[in-house]
Design goal:
mainly alpha; 2 domains; two-stranded antiparallel ribbon; two-stranded antiparallel sheet; 6 strands; 59% helix; elongated
Amino acid sequence: MQWLAAGTYDRAVGLSLFTLQVTHKIDADIDVERDYVVDTVLHAVPEAEVAVIEDFSTGYHSRNGGGDAVRTDGDLPVPLLEDVPAAATPAATSQAGRATSHATSAEDVLQDVARRPFSIVAAWALTLVSALTFALGLLLRPDELTSDLELETASPLENVVTWSIMVGFIVLLLGAILFLGWRTFQGSQRSRLTMIVLVTLSQAIQIAGFFQGARPTAGALLSASIDLLTVYALTSLSARAWTRGGATSAREESAR
């Protein structure tokens, strides 16, 4: 049996230079992680040997599919384990036991499937934090809501009407976002996509305001950070899988 493995170190979160999708950013020196994978095998199995195929691929100094700079010498290390006794491999003694336990613990598997992925839980929590932060900001600094309107030239009645309309709109917007967040938490694909559009639109509006000379406040920066994390959580593979049938399958399996 032969195994093919690869490893890269995730150093940050950012946007792909080619697709503009939220993705992970890897460390440029990919040979470091490659050597780490090999070293972990040698540490666990000192009897193993490693053969290195030099110049397996041409030395590469460019960018990957996500636009990250990568560097490699092109060598391919091959750990040789066929001559290692089974008793020398720590995992060999417990492999049969794990296989048996996995086959007989169907209920545990179903419980794992029924659990929501962390990205979905994080998106819902971030939505609550964002709504709470905005509501507190509105209560503590109500003057910012009408700072761009010339309400001082209007009559008191017009001020009350304008204020009521704006507050009502904000309440409806926050309610809609919370509803979409809850529906996404339950596994709705449409709600997840709608949330991505709304949060991205919110970020675009904030960025446009900054470019127009608006001074970014601590609250605005916090809101932008929360929005970015929310988009990252909603665009993850686990979130997409959950809203594309994972939640329904989990509920059906749990109900049996």
